[in-house]
């Protein structure tokens, strides 16, 4: 029997994706470099559907109906190139190769060009939702050619998560677009997690509540406008008790956050594009700070807090303030992430629909959240919306949260509690809404030391002051440098 789709790479993700296809009634060809994993899938889940197992890549390719659709789900990097190099000579024009691993989008652009030379479609696809999502419905972000989506799309939509009957999968855009939006998704995930961690820390240090008590607060928040997967699982982690010590698990976990690199890529790209994604950047740096062990040890006993004992007068009111600060900061982090998608879409010619992006992130993925509906609606109202937080709905949210947000950030600063994501989001908010920024002074300084010129508010053109001479101004014309 010819298979409709093939999966090569049967570690946790590939195995579960293959099972997901089979459970939806699709005949799935399966392959893994080490055959034992293929065998294990058949032994343990073979009864879930129709699998066509192959030991060799040649047999695997031969088992697929044309145009072949092959999903590569191996460790991102050289492994992906190794599989592609082995596959290409076995394929025929029009076949579709999907890389569903966490590739860096420049690699995807390179691979797409490489395969196009062989008449093959290469689809770099983001897949989010972890192991569980891969099995029960992930959020899927496929890039590549629109033509490939015609035959591949329905299969991917079928196995994706559904929200209100709508699949959490849509065509994203050419070449690297799919992996790019997955990268930004992960960047937003970093910001979301950092904000949640700051909220927890503030409540704990401000009110003395136990992790289990704070878990209850998160559970309550999860029934309101903050409802999301990450808020839900925060309650679960905070409630967990360590069997060995009897303490809250969160108190015995080493406080050094690790990362696999998608946050770093997001920030690096934002620097290239000149897009301020301060929430994601602070979240990435906060992980780096947590892992800066020698620096933390050098600082711990030497650097004073310079604060007095913190006393929160009204714990309930404080918890509500933190909730509002969290919501406002979260909206800013998403707004920044969507700005980055817009900038990249222009820069790389992807024509990405941001509203559709928010729609496919409502289910299946790690940042799935109730308020993503509101983002979709905002972009439906105005698909060219220049700033998400300037949309009426989100401006209203921030206005409602603003006083609380300022109280929380000020209180944290006064009491020596680090809230890099809360406070940088507020600084961004105040910066982006400002009538005038001190950037004018920076331009003046640049002109003095480097004759870099400046523009004026009252007339067109480019100007330079003769700082070393009579301090008169000359119009130097030309473009803005
Ligand atoms: P891993 O990232 O742990 O990769 C293991 C798989 O890669 C095995 O099937 C292994 O084959 C295969 N492989 C390697 Br390593 N080098 C190979 C090579 N040179 N040629 C052929 N196969 C090779 O698996 P995973 O955790 O299932 O993740 C798969 C992809 O999905 C990754 O790109 C990951 O970043 C991405 N992703 C993961 C998650 C998650 O929650 N884990 C979520 C979203 C995306 P072997 O069995 O023969 O060693």
TrEMBL record:
Q: Does the keyword NADP apply?
A: yes
The record's EC number reads 1.1.1.44
- Name its pathway: Carbohydrate degradation; pentose phosphate pathway; D-ribulose 5-phosphate from D-glucose 6-phosphate (oxidative stage): step 3/3
Q: Which chemical reaction does it catalyze?
A: 6-phospho-D-gluconate + NADP(+) = D-ribulose 5-phosphate + CO2 + NADPH
Which leading EC class covers this enzyme? Answer: oxidoreductase
InterPro entries with a match to the protein in the record? 6-PGluconate_DH-like_C_sf, 6PGD_dom2, 6PGDH_C, 6PGDH_Gnd/GntZ, 6PGDH_NADP-bd, 6PGdom_BS, NAD(P)-bd_dom_sf, Pgluconate_DH
- The 6-phosphogluconate dehydrogenase C-terminal domain sits at 178-468
Keywords from the named record: Gluconate utilization, NADP, Oxidoreductase, Pentose shunt
Subunit annotation: Homodimer.
Q: What does this protein do?
A: Catalyzes the oxidative decarboxylation of 6-phosphogluconate to ribulose 5-phosphate and CO(2), with concomitant reduction of NADP to NADPH.
The UniProt family comment states: Belongs to the 6-phosphogluconate dehydrogenase family.
Matching entries from NCBIfam families are given as: gnd, PRK09287.1
Q: Under what name is this protein listed?
A: 6-phosphogluconate dehydrogenase, decarboxylating
């Amino acid at each position: 029997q010819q298979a409709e789709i093939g999966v090569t790479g049967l570690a946790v993700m590939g195995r579960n994706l293959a099972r997901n296809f089979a459970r939806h009634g699709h005949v799935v060809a399966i392959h893994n470099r080490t055959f034992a994993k293929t065998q294990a899938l058949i032994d343990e889940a073979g009864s879930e559907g129709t699998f066509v197992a192959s030991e060799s890549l040649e047999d695997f390719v031969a088992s697929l109906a044309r145009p072949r659709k092959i999903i590569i789900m191996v460790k991102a990097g050289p492994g992906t190139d190794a599989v592609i190099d082995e596959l290409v000579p076995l394929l025929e024009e029009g076949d579709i190769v999907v890389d569903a691993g966490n590739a860096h989008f420049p690699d995807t652009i390179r691979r797409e060009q490489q395969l196009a030379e062989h008449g093959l479609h290469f689809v770099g696809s983001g897949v989010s939702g972890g192991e569980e999502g891969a099995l029960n419905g992930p959020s899927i972000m496929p890039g590549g050619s629109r033509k490939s989506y015609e035959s591949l799309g329905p299969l991917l939509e079928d196995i994706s998560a559904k929200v209100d009957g709508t699949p959490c999968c849509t065509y994203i855009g050419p070449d690297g677009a799919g992996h790019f939006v997955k990268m930004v998704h992960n960047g937003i995930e970093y910001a979301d997690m950092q904000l949640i961690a700051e909220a927890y820390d503030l409540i704990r240090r401000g009110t003395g509540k136990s992790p289990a008590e704070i878990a209850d607060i998160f559970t309550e928040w999860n029934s309101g406008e903050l409802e999301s997967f990450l808020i839900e699982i925060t309650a679960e982690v905070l409630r967990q008790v360590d069997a060995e010590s009897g303490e809250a698990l969160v108190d015995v976990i080493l406080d050094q956050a690790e990362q696999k690199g998608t946050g770093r890529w997001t920030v690096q790209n934002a620097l290239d594009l000149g897009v301020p994604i301060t929430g994601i950047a602070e979240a990435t740096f906060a992980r780096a700070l947590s892992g800066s062990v020698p620096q933390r040890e050098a600082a711990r006993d030497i650097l004073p807090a310079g604060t007095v004992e913190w006393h929160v007068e009204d714990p309930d009111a404080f918890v509500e303030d933190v909730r509002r600060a969290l919501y406002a900061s979260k909206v800013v982090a998403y707004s920044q992430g969507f700005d980055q998608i817009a900038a990249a879409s222009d820069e790389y010619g992807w024509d990405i629909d941001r509203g559709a992006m928010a729609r496919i992130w409502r289910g299946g993925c790690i940042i799935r959240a109730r308020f993503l509906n509101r983002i979709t609606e905002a972009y439906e109202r105005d698909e060219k919306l220049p700033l998400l937080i300037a949309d009426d709905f989100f401006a209203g949210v921030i206005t409602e949260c603003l006083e609380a947000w300022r109280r929380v950030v000020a209180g944290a600063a006064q009491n020596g509690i680090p809230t890099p994501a809360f406070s940088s989001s507020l600084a961004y908010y105040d910066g982006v809404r400002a009538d005038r920024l001190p950037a004018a002074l920076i331009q003046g300084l640049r002109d003095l030391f480097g004759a870099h010129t400046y523009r004026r508010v009252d007339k067109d053109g480019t100007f330079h002051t003769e700082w070393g001479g009579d301090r008169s101004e000359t119009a130097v014309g030309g473009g803005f440098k």
